[in-house]
Automatic annotation (TrEMBL):
Classification via Pfam families: Mo-co_dimer, Oxidored_molyb
Protein name: Molybdopterin-dependent oxidoreductase
Parts forming coiled coils: none
Keywords on record: Metal-binding, Molybdenum, Oxidoreductase
Species whose genome carries this gene: Streptomyces caeni
Region called Disordered, residue ranges: 367-391
Length: 405
């Protein structure tokens, strides 16, 4: 059995059983170069035989590519790490590989011809109803944004964090086009007691909460010109699995509150009584985060060769100023090269060329620093983790693990 199969993956300083990772295969070089000339080149993802970047069985939903089946019912599928950065929509995740997250066993399917969005509520001065055609005609705002679940990396922790056992594919990035929520709020008008905006997606399979609602502090969507009700994803209709025909997108916030199949927007003085999470309503801002996307975990790399590693980094919109990598479990760090910015909410692609000083299991960590001085933590905060701090878990530093042969 190879050392990759026996290894324990580190998430910061936390050891995790390697059963959560797929074992790697061999490696191959393109072009038939001989050993002497090949040793002078840098290996890139296309030169290596990589595992898919998810430990789960690969299954293709209708209209999707093969993705890691975390759960079948409800449908929860993570993006293979090598497909996070799109091949057709760089640097955005291609639509057919954008991760899928649902809480109900069956996905709500809305007829676009009969679709209606109702905007009103107790703290709205008026009520309006818009068709899908109305929304598409008004969809003039386009913004790139990372969608990330607070369960990112939960399945890599030991002991396991309760909930969906995501590994590294519970996030994606897309360019969204839609209607500014601030414009819709101006149209209905707001009463003096308006404090919360709640977004409803229709009926759910739950006796205690037969409707699905997510609530934002009103100011966080009213004062954000990039908060939209999206009707397009990477220039195309939003896939059914990602919220067709209309999805809430609030860039810079955690995606579990980005309601899919939105049919209602209600303004009120209090959070909606059917708010799904049951937790205190906050601005829900993302933490600073980075991760390595390729080579994927378990890749075998020939000793004596340099390899290019690629990753992504993002935060809540202040901007990424630096990404560093470590090959000694965080004792020392070296800066990497950042790709240009595609927008303050879009992840920054980064690259580095590295070598390895020995054979066997090798770990590489990455960490990001944002413009407001926040640094991605190496390990979870035990106190916050004990108090249900799943967002703290999702922003940790994760290791990429290779076998140098």
């Amino acid at each position: 059995m190879s050392s990759v199969n026996r290894r324990r993956l580190l998430i910061g300083g936390i050891a995790v059983p390697a059963a959560a990772l797929m074992a790697g295969g061999g490696y191959r070089l393109f072009g038939g170069a001989d050993t002497a000339s090949a040793a002078d080149s840098v290996l890139r993802a296309g030169d290596l035989k990589m595992p898919p970047g998810t430990p789960f069985r690969l299954v293709a939903l209708s209209g999707k590519g093969p993705m890691g089946q975390t759960y079948d019912r409800p449908p929860n599928y993570e993006t293979p790490a090598e497909r996070l950065i799109g091949r057709e929509n760089y640097p955005y995740t291609d639509n057919d590989y954008y991760y899928v997250r649902y809480r109900e066993a069956t996905v709500l399917q809305l007829n676009p011809d009969n679709y209606r969005l109702t905007i009103g509520g107790a703290s709205a001065a008026n009520e309006i109803t818009l068709s899908l055609d109305d929304l598409q005609a008004r969809a003039t705002t386009t913004v790139g944004a990372v969608g990330m679940c607070s369960g990112e990396g939960r399945g890599l922790h030991h002991p396991m964090i309760p909930g969906m056992p995501w590994t590294k594919g519970d996030l994606s990035c897309a360019e969204w086009t839609g209607v500014r929520i601030s414009d819709l709020l101006k149209e209905v008008g707001l009463k003096d007691d308006a404090k919360y905006a709640s977004f409803g997606a229709g009926r759910q399979l739950s006796l205690t909460k037969p409707e699905y609602w997510r609530t934002y502090p009103l100011a966080s969507v009213q004062q954000n010109p990039d908060a939209i009700l999206a009707v397009k994803m990477n220039g195309e209709d939003i896939p059914l699995w990602n919220g067709y025909p209309v999805r809430l997108v609030v860039p810079g916030t955690w995606a579990p509150t980005w309601t899919k199949q939105v049919v209602s927007l209600e303004i009120a003085a209090t959070p909606h009584p059917m708010e799904w999470s049951g937790r205190p309503i906050t601005p829900n801002k993302l933490s600073v985060f980075s991760m390595i996307s390729t080579p994927t975990d378990g890749t075998r790399i020939p000793f004596g060769r340099k390899v290019e590693i690629t990753g992504v980094a993002f935060d809540d919109g202040s901007g990424i100023t630096k990404v560093e990598i470590s090959q000694d479990d965080g004792r020392t760090w070296q800066p990497v090269t950042l790709d240009r910015s595609y927008g303050k909410y879009t992840w920054r692609v980064w690259r580095a060329q590295i070598g390895f000083s020995g054979r066997g299991e090798q770990r590489v960590l990455s960490r990001a620093t944002s413009a407001d001085g926040k640094v991605q933590p190496l390990e979870p905060d035990p106190e916050k983790l004990a108090n249900g701090g799943r967002k703290e878990t999702a922003s940790r530093t994760f290791a990429a693990v290779y076998e140098v042969v």
